[in-house]
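Problem 3 from the worked examples.
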Amino acid sequence: MGSYQYYEFLSIDKSLSHSQMNELRSISSRARISATSFVNVYNFGSFKGNPEHLVEDYFDLHLFFADWGARNIALKFPKILIDPETIQPFLSDVTVAPYDPVFIDLKSVGDSLILDVRLNEEEPEYGWYEEDDFNRVTAALSSLRSDVLAGDYSLFHLIWLLGVQGGIIGNNTPEPLGGLPQITNPFVQVASFLQLDQDLVLAANQGSDAGNARPQDKIPSSQVRDYIDNMPDTEKNNVLFQLYQNNDPYLAAAFSQNINKILLKTSGATGGARRTAGEIVSLVEAVRKERLVREGKQRAEAFRRQKEEKNARQQKRLLVLAQRGAQVWQEVEDDIMLRHASAYDRASALLEDLKALTTQQGKQDFFSSQVLKIREDHAQKKAFLKRLDEKGL
């Protein structure tokens, strides 16, 4: 019996060459290969390539999903844009084996760092995924990767929380950088794919303040503009010339990251107070109760609005029905005689409105006698009578 497996690889920083695409084709004749991606779906059989090697040699991002409970992500970062001292607190206490329920690893390969995250759930708790869903997750991963290159380590906060949830980060471990920055839609997309408890995320975010905002959100754009205006012409010209040459895919990220570091250092912005993993976990139940109450109120409000809108639409219809008088009863009869589903739907819907109208007019007995006669006249039309029963007519 086969199993569903989805493999996707993306090259973000530069396109694949023709020779590289040919090399990838030798791995799979069925894969969809472009200058920036490799996608393969299996319902029978398995992938013959090595995902780790493909990320090392060709790609910047990898996503894998299997219906037996496995899901992996891998992201490659250029070392020149990653601060080792900043990343170290996120993963320093992680000690796992590749086939543990949660596996997290950051390894150095040449000029790159590769983050490898794997879930190996024996009894996964999730619904079915379509390829469009995977595309949204890879787009979200790409966005979070770009944020990392700009100095926003939200992705690593997410991975740290995954380690907390999986029990591979101890309760006494302090949270990195003083708290979780702003929760973005890409963050939510990836957290959902990795089955990260949304209430753990909310608990981690609960104590965050403006000091934990993303670097690009801490600095006013006017301050960035002033800094660029005051840069020496030679420095600005050098940056523009490098952009023109288009030889460095990391130039823009490095430029933004450098400005952020300088301006944040000047402003003295710092993160908030650091809590331990255990302190964050202790907040989860209270956060979950608050969320359920909030969502219950939202559902009740949505139901109230829907009911009001439904009633308003019905009142408009009743005004028209009142003007048409006995003609409406004949329309009901005509629809019943057509003997097909859509006509039965129209007839039963008209009767439902007629019930509301006659109730407003104080003519319930008249309505009941009319419906009783309709039931007697059409006693053999079981499908129609079933519709009346479902509407309580």
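Problem 4, a separate protein:
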Amino acid sequence: MRNTRWGTPEELASLIVFALSDVSAFMNGAVLVADGAMDKL
């Protein structure tokens, strides 16, 4: 389902913290899209 609102700074910060953490260490070559599914128009 598509969002109709802008993401908050906290939501974007959560993605950045995840990407920089050891939890994402197994990810390789992934594109993390933070657009609220706006690309699904």
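Solution to problem 4. Residues 9-40 form one domain. Helices lie at 9-20.
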